[in-house]
Amino acid sequence: VQLVESGGGLVQPGGSLRLSCATSGFTFSSTAMKWYRQAPGKEREFVASISSGTGVIDYYDHSVKGRFFASRDNAKNTVYLEMNSLKPEDTAVYYCHFGNYWGQGTQVTVSS
Length: 112
Known about the structure:
It is a single chain. The protein is mainly β. The chain is about 0% helix and about 50% strand. It is built from no helices and eleven strands. Strands 2, 4, 5, 6, 9, 10 and 11 form a seven-stranded mixed sheet that branches. The chain is globular and about 40 Å long.
């Protein structure tokens, strides 16, 4: 199993980024996926989840609801996290996750 995040970077407050998590080694279309983040000095926290299949069911932490949107492309075995109206407090390493598996993370820094 491999989970490889990408798309992080430095963005100004109010900006947008789209993270990707390319996966392999399991039946992606049948697997619900989650996004977590970990800020310096803080515990890893839940950000968003998206159901298996067409991904019609998604959940978000209250801190990102209405700004972040999870989606998936089963043909590409990839899950995405669209992040809008970014705030400095969104600065963290972002991870995709399912079961016992985690990616290596991608750094998102929101700063002017």
